[in-house]
Amino acid sequence: MDGLNQYISGFERRFRAIEGRSPLTVKSYCKKIENFLQWFASERRSPDNGQHLPTRQDIEAYLEYCFYRGNKNSTRLTKLIALHKFFTHLAYEGVVKEDIMVNIPRPRANKGGVQKFMKKEIIKIFKMIDVVTEVGVRDVVILILAVFAGLRIGEIVRLNLHDVMDENGELDINIIDTKWGSNRVVYLWKSPSIFIRRWLTIRISQGAGSTDPLLVSYKKGNTPTRQRLTPVGITKKIKMYADKAKTKKPIVNMHMFRATHASDLRHIKGYDVFAIAERLGHRNISTTEIYIPSRGRVHKEYASLAAYWQDFNHVWDKKE
């Protein structure tokens, strides 16, 4: 199998350059290919001449193996797509003569949409955060960026101070390095912008410059560090607040807040699927449609996100 492994680097370069995929996507696909080749080497003993190549039956056997390991249909579908692109590359290089992926049944991905929160659950999670402390203000900012701006967790942790632009009380968040390597600007209205502006003041008082991380970790005793907050650190915090709010979600992750934001946009006048895709930074409309229920209709439209989330204005009224 060393013979096929040597083509992964070429596939990686071609996949990045021609299809314009992000480094994270390319790395993920290459890892899936490597996992398949490792499985193939362990299950199928190659002959001495090393010319034994995978067949369609091998691909199907691998998908079955993944199924019994507990992989969901969506996971197995992603692995199949990665292998399809790799073997297309091998055909381009002349390593294989035929497309072994032809007519392989695709695992049916769940079309029921992704998990999300209800508005009242979001409000309850916000209420669990103590906005009197620096850590509390930081955590509110994290939640605001996910719920009200729909940022990916990777985009949140990569933000620097200069990526937040003040526009007469409202804020524009400049997303430099998104999943697809493109740029976009996300607008935030005045009410949540107050907390981000408060956090900027805290960061500046800590000696942070414009190119320093927007979100940093804290030591025990609420002592700030200069280290950028990690996705793992954010996920732990959000899970803690969700548990305190008793949302009763079996799984809680940051992507659920992004999905919630996408669903919320359906209630805002002027936001069709194309506008939602642009705000979320989706490359394909089909991706956006996963977040939007195919059934049901919006019973009430709002003039803006500020109007839709007006309850947010009074979350901490009793605390402050």
Automatic annotation (TrEMBL):
Keyword terms, alphabetized: DNA integration, DNA recombination, DNA-binding
UniProt keyword RNA-binding, yes or no: no
Domain called Tyr recombinase: residue spans: 112-310
Residues in Core-binding (CB) domain copies: 2-91
Family, per entry: Belongs to the 'phage' integrase family.
Coiled coil: none
Listed name of the protein: Putative tyrosine recombinase
Superkingdom of the source species: Bacteria
InterPro entries for the chain: CB, DNA_brk_join_enz, Integrase-like_cat_sf, Integrase_catalytic, Integrase_recombinase_N, Integrase_SAM-like_N, Tyrosine_recombinase_XerCD
Naturally occurring in which organism (per UniProt): Candidatus Scalindua rubra
GO biological process, one term: DNA recombination
DNA damage recorded as keyword: no
UniProt GO MF annotations: DNA binding
Record-linked Pfam families: Phage_int_SAM_1 (PF02899), Phage_integrase (PF00589)
